[in-house]
């Protein structure tokens, strides 16, 4: 219908009507593009919020795991100090002495917790990291996981 009306105006050489028809089509296209961009921005913001919430959950999990790790290390430190203190006494039994040595050796072994980086890897590998608009937040998240991985590798290697 629009094309038929456009051709009729063109044959009649009604240039104002032709220009108006072209303008209506252009405005319609621009409105459609604006609506599509608005819809895409809304979808991106929703995805950004989902990723940020998942990252917060991952960081909270890391916080709990690291707190447990710290408590285990402090507990082992106390046991080591108790064991070292018991070496000042001459043991009545060789078995007690060997158990202390075994406990001291065991205290040196502790599983290093790996970072909970599932969401970070998903965001990074899907190129959705750009959706997080805050540059400082993106840098902080990247730095956190980079430093965590470096510390994990350092602590995983035997002395």
Characterization of the model:
There is one protein chain. The protein is mainly alpha-helical and 159 residues long. Helices cover 79% and strands 0% of the residues. It is built from five helices and no strands. Helix 2 (15-86) packs antiparallel against helix 3 (94-107) and helix 2 (15-86) packs antiparallel against helix 4 (118-125). The chain starts with a helix and ends with a helix. The model has no long low-confidence stretch (mean pLDDT 81).
Short characterization:
The protein is 79% helix and 0% strand. It has 159 residues and is an all-alpha fold.
Shape: rod-shaped
Order of helices and strands: HHHHH
User: What percent of residues adopt helix (DSSP H or I)?
Assistant: over 70%
Low-confidence stretches are none
- The average pLDDT is 81
Strand content: under 5%
Report the structural category: mainly alpha
Give the distance, in angstroms, between the N- and C-terminal Cα atoms.
81 Å
Assembly type: single chain
Number of strands: 0
Q: Provide the gyration radius in Å.
A: 33 Å
Helix tally equals 5
| Largest beta-sheet details | none
List descriptors.
159 residues, mainly alpha, 5 helices, 0% strand
Layout of SSEs?
Blueprint: H1 2-11, H2 15-86, H3 94-107, H4 118-125, H5 135-156
Helix pairs in contact: 1-2, 2-3, 2-4
